[in-house]
Design a protein that fits this description.
Number of strands: 2
Shape: flat
Strand content: 5-15%
Order of helices and strands: EEHHH
Length: about 90
């Protein structure tokens, strides 16, 4: 998210999660009211690899590309979150 983006009114963060730009003036609404900033960071880090993998599966202009992208986002995010959890567990030993 851009550093000049307005902060979340409840959390104070500048995550892209829940930001809905509406109207011609670019008004920003925040839905849902709360989220996990750590999860948002992990998920957003997976976007380039999910795009790459989806593009290997089908052409980007194909109607099935979004489905493949979402599949890879889910798998990559789950793996990254498990890895992060395992690192936290090892650090607490």
């Amino acid at each position: 998210m851009s550093p000049d983006a307005p902060p979340h009114p409840r959390l104070g963060c500048r995550c892209s999660e829940g930001r809905v730009v509406s109207g011609g003036r670019g008004d920003v609404r925040f839905l849902p009211g709360v989220h996990s900033c750590a999860y948002v960071r992990v998920r957003e880090a997976q976007i380039p690899e999910a795009e790459r993998r989806a593009s290997l599966d089908v052409e980007r202009s194909s109607p099935g590309w979004t489905s493949r992208f979402m599949h890879h986002m889910s798998a990559l995010t789950a793996a990254a979150l498990l890895d992060a959890r395992a690192r936290e567990d090892r650090a607490s030993l």
